[in-house]
Structures are given as C-alpha cells and as structure tokens.
Amino acid sequence: MRKIKLANFAVMSGLNPDHEAALREVVTELSAGENLVNICPSQWRGEPLPSQQAVKEIITLSRAIIFPGFFGDSDVTRENLLYFTGLWSEKLYKLLTEQIHAGLSMDVCTEDAPEFAATERLASTKAAAFMSCLPELRRLLNADVRATYYGDPAASSVQEVIYCYPGIRAICNHRIAHELVKLEVPIIPRMISELAHGETGIDIHPAATIGESFTIDHGTGIVIGATAIVGNNVKIYQGVTLGAKSFDLDKDGNPVKGEPRHPIIGNNVIIYSNASILGRITIGDNAVIGGNIWVTENVAAGERLIQAKANNVLRIKH
Amino acid sequence: MRKIKLANFAVMSGLNPDHEAALREVVTELSAGENLVNICPSQWRGEPLPSQQAVKEIITLSRAIIFPGFFGDSDVTRENLLYFTGLWSEKLYKLLTEQIHAGLSMDVCTEDAPEFAATERLASTKAAAFMSCLPELRRLLNADVRATYYGDPAASSVQEVIYCYPGIRAICNHRIAHELVKLEVPIIPRMISELAHGETGIDIHPAATIGESFTIDHGTGIVIGATAIVGNNVKIYQGVTLGAKSFDLDKDGNPVKGEPRHPIIGNNVIIYSNASILGRITIGDNAVIGGNIWVTENVAAGERLIQAKANNVLRIKH
Amino acid sequence: MRKIKLANFAVMSGLNPDHEAALREVVTELSAGENLVNICPSQWRGEPLPSQQAVKEIITLSRAIIFPGFFGDSDVTRENLLYFTGLWSEKLYKLLTEQIHAGLSMDVCTEDAPEFAATERLASTKAAAFMSCLPELRRLLNADVRATYYGDPAASSVQEVIYCYPGIRAICNHRIAHELVKLEVPIIPRMISELAHGETGIDIHPAATIGESFTIDHGTGIVIGATAIVGNNVKIYQGVTLGAKSFDLDKDGNPVKGEPRHPIIGNNVIIYSNASILGRITIGDNAVIGGNIWVTENVAAGERLIQAKANNVLRIKH
Amino acid sequence: MRKIKLANFAVMSGLNPDHEAALREVVTELSAGENLVNICPSQWRGEPLPSQQAVKEIITLSRAIIFPGFFGDSDVTRENLLYFTGLWSEKLYKLLTEQIHAGLSMDVCTEDAPEFAATERLASTKAAAFMSCLPELRRLLNADVRATYYGDPAASSVQEVIYCYPGIRAICNHRIAHELVKLEVPIIPRMISELAHGETGIDIHPAATIGESFTIDHGTGIVIGATAIVGNNVKIYQGVTLGAKSFDLDKDGNPVKGEPRHPIIGNNVIIYSNASILGRITIGDNAVIGGNIWVTENVAAGERLIQAKANNVLRIKH
Amino acid sequence: MRKIKLANFAVMSGLNPDHEAALREVVTELSAGENLVNICPSQWRGEPLPSQQAVKEIITLSRAIIFPGFFGDSDVTRENLLYFTGLWSEKLYKLLTEQIHAGLSMDVCTEDAPEFAATERLASTKAAAFMSCLPELRRLLNADVRATYYGDPAASSVQEVIYCYPGIRAICNHRIAHELVKLEVPIIPRMISELAHGETGIDIHPAATIGESFTIDHGTGIVIGATAIVGNNVKIYQGVTLGAKSFDLDKDGNPVKGEPRHPIIGNNVIIYSNASILGRITIGDNAVIGGNIWVTENVAAGERLIQAKANNVLRIKH
Amino acid sequence: MRKIKLANFAVMSGLNPDHEAALREVVTELSAGENLVNICPSQWRGEPLPSQQAVKEIITLSRAIIFPGFFGDSDVTRENLLYFTGLWSEKLYKLLTEQIHAGLSMDVCTEDAPEFAATERLASTKAAAFMSCLPELRRLLNADVRATYYGDPAASSVQEVIYCYPGIRAICNHRIAHELVKLEVPIIPRMISELAHGETGIDIHPAATIGESFTIDHGTGIVIGATAIVGNNVKIYQGVTLGAKSFDLDKDGNPVKGEPRHPIIGNNVIIYSNASILGRITIGDNAVIGGNIWVTENVAAGERLIQAKANNVLRIKH
Fold it and tell me: What is the ipTM score, two decimals?
C-alpha cells in the first residue's frame, strides 16, 4: 500500500519508478563481462590505461616548454623561465612515464606480460630519452616557423605564426609523436596526432617522415599517410592528400597491410590545395603540383603539374 | 569639482569614465526587448534552455558508458565498472531528461504550450527509452570498430581504433543522435551531430540512416545529408559528400524543403576521398566510387567509377 | 656508500637518478637565452603577452552577449538579462583592453616603445570602441542567421541555426575579428579567426570584407583570403576556397606580399562545394559556381558555371 | 593457473586481490538497507537533501549582497553593483528555495507527506519572503558594525570591522538564520549557525533573540542558547556562555526539553570574557558582568559583578 | 644604455628591476640546502609526503561513506547508494594507502629504510584493514548520534545532529584516527584529529580511548589528552579539558614524556562547561563535574562536584 | 489576458511572477547609493579592494615557501625546490603588491589621495621589503617548531609539529602579519591574523610583539592583544588571554583607545590553560602562571601563581 503512495511522489517529482527499474537493468547489462569485448587485458590487470586527458596535457606541456609564453601560462618571462621550465619538464616526464607505461601494457598478451615494475622502468627510460630531445625539437620547430613566416604573404610576424597557424600546431604534435614512434612507444603517438587532427583538420600519421622547414598553409583536410617520406623545405596547402593508391586490395578485399604505400616527396616541393598524391610514387626535388590535381605516377625533379584550363566546365550565360 | 579629480584617478588606473558611460549605454541597448529577436518563447517563460555544455556532457557520459576506460575516467577497471556505470547512467538519464525537456519547450508557440510538468514527464520517458538502447548502441559501435580495424592497414589494434579514430567518434555521436531523432526529440540530436562535426570535421545529419559496420577513414570534410540512406559494410574516405544535387531551387530561389534529396548507398560500397555523390540517386551494392569524382546519376551494383587518367593535367618540364 | 643505497630506493620507486640529472640539464638548456629566438621583446619587458585562453574567453563572452542563452550561461532569462549583460560586458571590456595592450606591445621595437601607461590607454580606447559596435554586430549576425534559416531545407528553426550551425560561429568570430582589424589591433583578430578555424574548419582571414546576410553550409574546409571582398546575400558550401592564384612568386621564389590577390564576389552569388576561386578576379552579381570547379578568370553577372558531365570518369562494369 | 599469475601482477603493482575482495564485501555491507538507520524518508523518496555545500553558498551569497566587495567577488564597484546584486539575488533565491524544500521534506512522515510541487511552492514563498528582508538585514548588520567599531580601541576603521571581525560574521549568520527560523524553515537555520560556529568558534542558536547593535569581541568559545533573549547595545567577550542551568534533569536523567531555559539580557549590558550566565535568569539593563564569573541568579539593572581579588590564588616565591 | 631605458619601462609597468634582482636572491637563499633543516629524509628520497589536502579528502570520503547524503554528494539515494559507496570506498582505499605510505616513510632513518615496494605493500595492508572497520565505525557513530539526540533539548531530529553538531564531526574524526593509531600508522591520525580541531575547536588526541555513546555539546575549547580513557555514555560540554596536571616537569624543565598523565573517566559521567580535569586521576562512574571547576584529585563514583555559590564575586550596586 | 496564462506557466514551473517582481525591487533597493554606507572610497574610484581570497592565497604561498612540502604542493622535492620556490615567490610578490595597494587605498580620504601609480609603486616596495624577510621568518619559525617539539610530551617528531600543531600556523601567520605591520601596511595584517584565528581559535593581534621560540599548546581560545609584549621561550596553553583590563572606560563609556593596555610577559614564562592576564602589568622572567587564574597585578620574576586548592568547590556525595 505504501508502494502505491510512493509512485505518486515519484511522478510528482519527475522520478518514474519504472524508469529507475529499467535504469538498474541497463546498468547491470552494461557492466556484465560478456558485453565488454574491447576491455583490454591491461585494464583487467589494474595497470594504467592510456588517458585522453593525460595525452592532451602532455601536448600542452610540451608546447609550453618549446614555445614559452605562446602556449600554456602567459605569465612566463625571461626572469621566471627557468622555474616554469623546471616544473613543466618534471610534470611532463612523469606524465610521459605513466602514459608510455599504459601504452606498453595495452598490447601485450596476459600470459607473458612483463612485471609491472619492469614495464614502468622501461617507460621511464623512454620518457627520459624523449625529454633529452626537447632542445632539438625546439630547433626543428623554429625552422618550421621561419619557413612559414617567409612563405606566407599574410603572416605579419614570426610571433603571429606561432600563435595562430594551425600548421605549426600540427607539425609540433607530429614531431613530438614521431620522436615517440622512434622510441617504439605504442598507441600514444597516434593519440597525439589525432589530437592535432581534431584541433586543426590536419592528419599526419606519426610514423610519417617529415624533413626540415616544413610549411602547411590553412591546413584543413590534409592527410599524410604512415609510410610517406617528405623532404626539406616542402610546402603544402589545405586539402592535400599524400595517401595510399586506391584499389590496391588483397584477395579478401582488404587493403594490403604493412607495405610502403604512400609517396616520397623530394626537397623544395610545393603542393597546392586539394591535390591528391597517391601510392608509392616519387615527386622529385623542386617539383610543383597544382591545386585539385590527382597524381598517381612519378613526377620528375623540377616538373610542374597544373590543371588544364577549365576544359571540363560549362559556362551557362542567362 | 570632485568630478574632475575623479577623472584623473580613473585615467591613472586605466579606467576611463567616458568608457564607463558608453559601456552602460551599450548594456542597456543590448538588454532592451526590441533588440532580442531570437530569444525563444521557452526562454521567456523560464523553462530550461538547451545548453551546449550539457549536450557535451551527455556525449562524454554516453561514450564513457559505451567504451569504459577509453573515454571518461581512465581509472575504471572490471572491479569498479558496475559503480562507474551506475553513476554515469543516472547522471546521463537526468541530463537527457533536462535537455530533452528544453528541446521540447523550444519549438512550441506560447499560447498552447503544455504544462511544465507534462513536458518534463514526456522528456523523462524519452530519456528512459534512450537509456534502454545503450546495450544495442554498444553492439553496433563495436561492429563499426571491428570493421574499421580490419579495413585499415595502419590500425594496429582494436583499442587504437577506439582511442584514436575520429570516424568512431563521429559514428558514435551519430548513432546516439539518430536514436534521439527516432524518439522525436527536437534540436538536441542536431547539437550532438554538430559536436562531432566540430571535433572531427565529419558532418552527418542526425536524420541520416546508416547501416551496420560503417567505416570512415581520416574523415575530415565528410558531409552526409539528412535524407541519405547508407547500407551495411560501407566505407568512405575524407572529403566525401553525400549531398543534395545542386541547382534544385524553388520559384523563390530557395532550395526545395522536406523532400528526399540525398543518395541511397547500397551494401559493401567503398567511396574514395573527395568524391561527391549528389541528389536522390542510388549507388548499387558492392559499387566502388573513386576519389575526386562527381556523381549525379545512378551507379549499378558492382560498378566501379574511377577518374580518367590525368586527362586534364598539364605537365610543364623546366 | 649512502649514495648507492639511494640509487636503489630510486629504482624501486621508479625514479632514476640518471634521469633526474638529465632532466636538470635539459631544463638548463631550454631556459638559456640563446635558445629562445622567438621570445618577443614585450615578453622580455614584462608586459602582458597575448593569451590563447584570454582570447577564447573574449569570444565566449562576445557570443554570450550577442546570442544570450544560446552561448555562455544557459540560465539567462528576460528578467536577468540586464544583469548578465552588464557583467559580461564589463569583463569583455577588461579582457579586450588587456589583450589589445598585449597585441600592441608585441610588434614594437624595444628602443622606441611607447610607455606602458600610454599603450594601456590606447588599448582601452580601442576596447571601448569595439564595445560600442556590439549592437550593430548583433544586427548583422541576426541577418546572417535569417539568411541561413531561409536558405537551408534542413534547418527547422532559427534557434537551431544559432545553436548548431558552424557557419554562424565562424561568421560571428569573423565579424568580431574584422571590427578589431578596422581598429588596427594587431594579432588578436588573427587569433580569433584561428579559433573559429579550429572549431569549424572554416578559415576566414580577419581582414577579408564580408557583406550582409552571408551563408555558409556545412563549412569544413572553407578558406577565404585576406584581401577577398564578398558582397551581400552570398552563400558558400563546404570546401570552397577564395584564394590567391597559384604560382605568383617573386624573384626569390616567395609569394608576393601585400597585394590584392583574392577574388571579389558580387551580390547574391552561390558557390557550391569544393569550388576554388583563385586570384584577383571578379565573380559578378547573381552568378552561380558549381561544385568542384577551379575558377581563375572573371565570371560575368548572372553566369552559371557547372562541371561538364563526368567527362573525366571511367565506368568499369564487372 | 592464470589466476596465480594475476596475483603476481597485482602484488607488483600494489594491488592486492585479497584487498579487492574485502573491499567489495565492505561496500556491499555498507550499502545494505539494514545498515542505514539514519537515511531519512525524503532521501528515500528522491527529494532534495539539505546540502552542506549549498548552505555554505547561501551564506557566501548573502554576505556578498549585504557587504558587497567585502565578501564574494572583490571586483564589485558602484558601476557594476546593480548587475552583481541582480545575479547574486537570483542565485540566492533559487538555492534557498531548493534548500528550504529539502528542509521541509526531511521531517515529514512518509504517509502524509504533501506533494512534491506543493512543498516546492511553499519553499519558494518562504525564500521570497526571506529575500524581501535583505535590506533590513543590511541595516541591522551595519548597526552591529558601527557598534563594534566604536566599542573597540583596536578597530582602525569600519571597513576593518567588516573584513576582519569574526563577531560580524557570526552575527551575520545569526540574523540570516533567525529570519529563517521566523519563517518556520527547519534544519537550514541550524546548519547556518553551525557554519558560523565552525568559522568563528561563536555558537549562537538560530532561535535566540538578539537586539540591535550587538557586539562580540574576539569571540571564540561563545555559546548563546536557543531561548536566550538579548537586548540592544549588548557587548560580550570571548568564552561567554548564555546557557541552560546545569543539573536540571527530568526523571529519566535527560535535560528537560522545550522550556525557556536560557537567560534574558537587558539593554546596554557588558559581559566580560569567560563569564557563564546560566538558567532563565534576568540581567538588568546597564549591568556589567566581570570576566570568569559564574552567574546563576538575577542581576539588577545597573549592578556590576566582579571577581573578588585573587582570594583563591597562592603566590609561591622561589 | 638600453639597460637604462629598460628600467624606465619597468617602473611604468610596476615592475621594479631592483625588486626582481632581490627576489632572485631570496629564492636562491630559500632553496639552498643549508636553509632546509626540516626537509625530511623521505622527501629527499622522492617518496610521497603526507599531504594536508589528501588527508582532508580522506575525511570527506570517510564521512560520505558513513553518513551518505549528509556529507559529500547530496545526490545520493537508496537506488544509487551502492554505486556511490563503491567508488568512494575505492578512492578512500587508494588515498589511505598513499598517505599511510607517506607516514611510514617519514620517520625512518635513511640507512635502514625498507624498500619502496615493501613499504607500499605494508601501507596497503593497513589501508585494507581500516576499510574493513568501516561498518563498525558506522555502528559506533550512530550510537554517538543517538546519545546526542536524546541528551540535548535543542536537537529536533537525529538528522539535525548529523548535519549540524560539531561534536559528531570531532568524534567521527577521532574514531577514524584512533583506528589508524591501533594500526600503528604514524602522523596521519594526528593530522586527522587536527583537522577536526580546526573545524570544531575540539582537540582529541588520536591515541585517547573513548567509549561508546559519547556526547559533546557545543564543543569549542575541548581538549582530551593522549593517555585519557573515557568510559561509555559520557557527556562533556564546551571548554572542558581532560589534561595533564600542571607543573610535572623533569629535571631539565621539560614535561615528562610517555607516561599515563591524563584522567580516567568512568561510565555515565557528565562534565559541564569549562571544567578542567587534570592528571592521572579517576572520575568514578555516574559522577557529575560542575562547570568552571578545576579537578586534580580522584572523584568517587556517583559524586557531584559543583562550584560553591558566588563566594568569590563582589556585587557592586550603583 | 496573456499575463494570466503566463502566471499559470510560472506556477507550474515553480517560478512565481510575484516573487520575480519582488526580487527585482529588492535588487534595486540594495543597489541604491543611499543604502551603501560602508562602500569605501577606493572601491568607488575603481582601485583594488582587499580580497579575502587573495589574502588566503598569500598565506598559503608564504607557508609553502617557508615549510616546503608541508604546506602547498606535496610534490616538492630537493630537486625541484628551486623551481617551486621561484614561482611561489614571484606569485607571492605580485599578490602582496596588489593587496598592499588595496590596503593603502582604503584608508585615504578622496580629496588628497595619491595617484594610482604612486600607490602601486609604494606597495611594490613594501612587498619587496617583505620578500627579503622570508629567510629570517623561516629561521624564527624553525625556532618556534623546535621549542614546541621539545616542550610537548605528545610530539613525536619535528615534522609532526609542522604538519599538525595549530600553534605553529598561528605563529606563522602572526610573524608574517607583524612584519607587514612594521612596514606600515594597513588592514592586510589584521586579515592575516583573523585567518589564523578562524583556522585555529588563536587570536593574536598583528601589532603584538612576540619573542623567539614561542610555544602554544592546543591553542583554541587564546587572545593576545595589540600592545602585548612577549619575551623569549614563552609557552602558553589553550584559553589564555593576554588582554586589556576590564572596566577601564572613558567618560563616554567607551574603552580608552590607543594606550598600552596589554601585559608585558618576560622570558621563559609558562602560562597554563584558561589563565587571564589583564592590563599593562608585567610578568617577570621565569614566572609560572597556573591554569584558570585571573591576574591583574604584576608578578615578580620567578614567582609561581597557582589556584588555591578547591576552596570554592562543593562535593556532594549521594
């Protein structure tokens, strides 16, 4: 009898007891083991999981260390730079150790997984190795900044390039992620490149090799595949794809895995907007690829490819 | 006389009294009724407004429930999964009730608006109905994850796909938003799809119908219109548009509203990057649409469309 | 001897003393003056630096003031609108003063830099001038909203357009940034437009001139250059570029700077998805540019350009 | 067999599986119904519970409204006072409605509890009645501030008294809580007085009646009982108790409930530190009670009680 | 020369270069090793330090688990209690492990310190042992609540006692801290009791032994020493001291350490406000100690001590 | 007519239009100038106001700098101490400059107020002077810590004293506040001492002079007046008052202001709990004052005052 009264209260306050019961059932179903196909082994063993939030923080700290004042705390001055850099670096080292540990734990099969402490030790060694690359990363990124500044008529200062150019953010994430790839850190580099992708629309696979003084203008819609190799002083515009060639499928209809399948771009190449360069072809030094062009064969050094003039457009006068 | 002194103080401290006065005037003008043409009726009656922040939280919670550990709190383990799922689910139910209420309130004309409590009751019923779909949503999304993993040579694990693929985030939001469309929830589904658009550059209208095992690679620049229908095992690349055909305008020069105007894509279709498929045409099962192609007529089952080789490109040797 | 024991502790707790030492060295190197080529002079003098976070807050406040309830705090009602508008406006004025000050400080060469207080006074005057434009900005943006609503068959209400259309966010940021360009505020406008770019994939240079009732559909991948001029009632779709013409380089191989180099678009023009309009050409009133088209020459008033039918596509039946 | 390996992992990472199991058991026991004797009926029905955090916020807002700039946001100026006061007041009204609702719900027996909406309506009426008292509360508290300033040789300004005197905080909470007692709000007033007690060591029961221009010096250790009545211009020092007389127990050995049992203090009375005034006695107008004195009988108007000189102290010279 | 100009800038912007230099010097001095006499060995080895914030969180979680809804999140209901309790308990266990580890590390001398992992294991075992006491702690504290409710004429409900009585908070902290003392956890118990002291003015040493159904009224100024033993059903009022006897000093003039030096209080004893009971004396069962009394000798069971009537007060009529 | 409908909506949603109207009236009244008697002149001129939150942060930073690891961030180690100290010190210097500026602005009469920039310059000079005292403050406080450790049988380590003894927090705030008094900073020192009072129940006026190696045990209820002078190696217990003598009133009935009116305490004095020492008397070196004693006349060097044995207590046997 009291139960009936209770239902009335519940309806009045917007809480429907049937909903409560249904909710409990859903929770139970969602928490049952058989429904959890993607829970990874390391999660099951209680080891750290890669955390989107932590990886975001890793990028924030790295950018603050490399370009102090431009990213992170804007109170940084020459006087306090040492203090900020010290604390940022320590925090970055710790977060990296933890996330690399998480990445290392995720792949391994349960039976032959190394001990927790051994994995942590390995992770901290990789994190320390990364830390020692930071000055070189700053040098490389400063070269990218200068190349962007000199190459863009709209850039009014080097500072504007660092503050405002999505290309710089994407290259920054790429150079960080690529360093971690070289240190054989799993998954974390991919999370870092995806962060840049979400932020800028520029999708560079962390395994791609990018030369010095790389410039991206506008950026949105750029895709650079995992096995691409890009030379020095290359400049690309929005919508450019350095992709795998279409239609190369195996006998099961799936793309062939693990092969070099993306282009090799020489030095001093310019690729204009929405051009697609596909397959393991070579674009020679000093080549220029015009906008909206679809390239699937080698281009010689110094060659210029441009779209033929409007031969596929109808003009309808009224 | 004191007034003059005051002005001096103000200048010293960077506060200009003329600015203060101008500021007050602007505030008055901005708050005046006649200047508020878009303030909606429900806002005027004091009912809840849709909140961008709340909708963002709804997505965060949904993703955490469906892929525990990958999104949301990374401390989740098998042991505490029940507790996390319980609290997340309750919070999601409450937020959904509130935001659905807000959505329902927004459209109705003032005069015949239903009572506050009735709308809230309706909202909570729709929210509860959504909650009961969560296990099915997880099943569907796991199928999308698997399809993506098997279809991409660069994907090294199922976990990497969940953590890093923007396609999964966009489909996740779409499947959630589409469920709410089916429950006739106004505006909230559109806010959810726009969140994914902002995050990934993938713009799927929540009313679009998407089959099982859907794969998106790279993603940026994809547009799928409201009346599009997509079959099972379809894979699309960056820059693909499933759009309305251009130039179909009514006598006032505006696009015709409410008609089926986007394509129907069959099962097992692959659409490569930057292809545009426009109008209420049908792409048959197992068809393949090559990159950079503009399709406005039906494609038969099994047909392959590819760009003719470089017939519109000039090669300029130096 | 104790040193050896200490090392053991360190290893146990995951803290490697070698890492500590390496970390300290990296910190020292990163903080050394010679490594800081891009640190700007104002940073060195202790003046405020432009802050990404502050500029983000400036946009959040501006949007909340212009579209109360849709952006910012969703508790706003007609009753409390005056209070919210008052506090938001004061906060916006202060943040603007500070960030404009930072922008003004950044460019100037050390030797002839004006005094701190004079720069702050100038900044506050510019901020006040901006504040007085807010009612006009609301009027303009409401016109953009209405044009979008009437132009899109999928838009179910004016409110949906404000809440969900990335085009509105991008135009909103653009109109704010452009006002600051007119007030000769350096760098901050560019940071504002880049925020919209990151959020929507729409990249409008703040110096571009955009007419009334401007409509953007879907949006991702749009680029509008610094010297572009766009008329009234123009509508553009995703992937459209209003860019500089390719290949116009100076004798050093760099793009020519500072010249009008982007198109002039007339009134009532529609430009469909992925069209590229390049160079200082003129698109006449009422012209229509079809999707995927590459335009580098003038288009007359009323002319319609469409892609020739599939003349470059091969159909392969199986 | 795999189980054994798992245990090893767990030990390595500091996670003991036995602890996990024990933890789960404790959680189950703590969540079982029979262990929850104090869970209140309203909690069971899903109505709001009084929240320590919300009551703290109520006090913060009330203080900010009454003494703008001294408590709450220190950015308040004459110019923006209207805006701040408007938003603070609206927020206070809402929080009060919610917490009064919670208080009203807590006591009632399940069977005859009024409907949710009716209780909410009653709560909002009480909240509105409280809001209308705020100007009078400010007047009263300003009188307390002035009395404190004129009565303390160490007070250097009226502003110092508001910022720094715990007595003002305690009286402020008391006058707020007492107003709610007069509006027959259960439990919330007691939570408010306890907040002041924790903050200042001054424990004034919200039902106590306190006259105008009340002064507390130093404050810690003051106790004023529920049925005490204090006249105008009264001043008390640290450690003073206006308490119930000891030893008045009923036949079960418990204190007699509900009777007037605390003293009546006349106008212009001063009570020095650590004096205890106990039982329903009357201290006449203009009386002075010396420090460390124990008073259990009436004191006539104008009388002065002081401790006899050191008659109970031994002086031991070495 | 530039240096002089720089100084001018600095003065303008409120940054005095002399201050900067002085600041750097102070920082260097404060960070030098010889100035850091209290840095503890574990801090030096990089082990966790006890954290005031973490200990505060431990208390918040414990209170939320024991009195759900009254402390911590007020959204707890019967339905979600299991979920909340699960997550709170897990978090409490982890925080306790970490802080107990920190406590254990702090005392030990560097040379013979156990390994990091061994200490962590020991800490987690102690934390688990504490967790298993939680149901018993709830039982004890519920008895304290009931005793307080029945003993205070001003208490209107059991719920009011939990929400509002500082005595309950102090006893709650004490029972938690005492449990940790029994588990031989160093320093953390003392931090817990000091938190209650700061919050309530009630200072109970965690080593003190307190019986069941203990009642504290008003509370401020209560001191209970480390070797005190208190029986069941004891009630004490504000300002009561169960302290060490004065003047018992050793030959160096310091108090004698480590001896039982605080009183033993029997069952059913009442001690009124500001009474001081000093030294290792015994107060027999059912005794009553009146207010403001100084007791340094045994009191027999059932005895009542009261202050002689006003024999040391002068009444001065005017 | 629409108005009536509106009222119905409002009641349904718990928003009573009468409440709204009343609320607006209250807001208007509370914001009117005539109701704002305590708004201070500096607030009116837009200068910074003292902020409770900022002063709290000043104490947090000072404690963290003086006792690194014990207060503030517990991640501090010997390795990163320089970085933490650097950032804390810079932040402290800025906050102090701002709050001292606020304090200096508050007192001055409008007409002859110095310029904003001059006051800021003065404030920064005082802040810099304070910063240079920090090493000496650490030395003094370490002496207090050692004295407390050696004087308390319950203190198990020097670290426990720093972490857990309210006396140390109170003395720490006092020594900071007293330094600011010596620098003639208005109001801020008083806010600092009141923070300690609220946190510990120990009320030391910032103008009081306290010698080295000062010990406070338990602390709650201690009052030390503005003109008190305390020698070296003094120890006091809970409830001790070093106050002004009662009854010294001027002809208007107010306490006489500005005179030395609190006691002078010699070196090596011990004062036991709840003793009150009142008026400008002198307690000679090495004197001992027993608990609960009321002292209003000089005590010679080496003298011991104790309460006569229980001559005012009645023992009632049952």
Answer: 0.89
